[in-house]
Structure formats: C-alpha cells, structure tokens
Automatic annotation (TrEMBL):
Name of the featured protein: DEHA2C10736p
Name of one Pfam family that matches: Complex1_LYR_2
Any single Gene Ontology cellular-component annotation: mitochondrial matrix
Recorded superkingdom: Eukaryota
Source organism of this protein record: Debaryomyces hansenii (strain ATCC 36239 / CBS 767 / BCRC 21394 / JCM 1990 / NBRC 0083 / IGC 2968) (Yeast)
InterPro entries listed in its UniProt record: Fmc1
UniProt-listed GO biological process terms: mitochondrial proton-transporting ATP synthase complex assembly
C-alpha cells in the first residue's frame, strides 16, 4: 500500500471518529444545558422572578446547530513531511488505520445489536412499558 493512500485512509478514519465523537459530546452538553436552564426557570417561577432571559436562552439552544470542527491532522502531516517513510512507519500507520476502523465498526455493531446500551433511563422505561402495551405519561 502506498504511503499517500495510507495517509488519506488514516485521515478519513480519524475524521469519521472525530465527527461522531464531537456530535455525541455536543448532544450531551446541549441536554445538560437545557436541563440546567429549565431548573433555573422553575426556581425563578417559584421565587416569582422574571424568566424572560431564561426563555430566550432556551430558545437559542433549541435553534442552534453545532458545527463539527475540522480534524487537526498535524501529527500525520509531520510523518508525511519526512521524505521517505520507512517500512516500519508504513506498517505502524496501516495498523493504526486498521485498529481505528475496527473500533468504529465494533462500536456501531454494539449499538445496533444492543439498542438499550446507549439509551437514557427515560427512553428505556418508555420502551419497556410500550413492550407490554402501556404508555408512560409525558
């Protein structure tokens, strides 16, 4: 396998992993922020304080789309900067690419065949109730 081709494949795997990881973290962070703002809103209502600024922040969170940052490939570029890559470097890069690809596929298969693994508690309860013909009130 040629060095440039291996470099491109390794960069592609790292980009895929980067985007999926960023999206997962961003979703969790967004949910955490919304929950915190809703709690603050309930506290403000309880204390008979204005909630307009909290409503505005919640609406901004609902409309905002997070953009995945571009993958920083400086380490790979340093390896490419070498005029000639040794056979050992090529083998290491190939092993890294294979490992990253395998880990990504493994994670996708785990999530596909164990859908409850990544679900939060509320979704698990709702699906369990639905399985026996009941519905959880909203």
């Amino acid at each position: 396998m040629k060095f440039r081709q291996l470099y491109k494949e390794l960069q592609k795997e790292l980009s895929i992993i980067n985007s999926k990881t960023f999206k997962a973290h961003a979703e969790r962070e967004l949910k955490h922020r919304k929950t915190k703002l809703q709690y603050q809103k309930f506290q403000a209502i309880k204390d008979k304080m204005p909630t307009k600024h909290l409503d505005e922040q919640l609406s901004r969170l609902d409309g905002g789309e997070t953009k995945v940052p571009r993958f920083n490939s400086t380490i790979i570029k340093e390896i490419v900067a070498e005029k000639e890559a040794s056979k050992m470097n090529l083998m290491h890069m190939k092993n890294i690419k294979t490992f990253l690809n395998s880990q990504r596929v493994y994670t996708e298969l785990i999530e596909r065949y164990n859908p409850g693994l990544t679900m939060d508690q509320e979704d698990k309860v709702r699906r369990t109730a639905n399985r026996v013909g009941l519905q959880v009130p909203n």
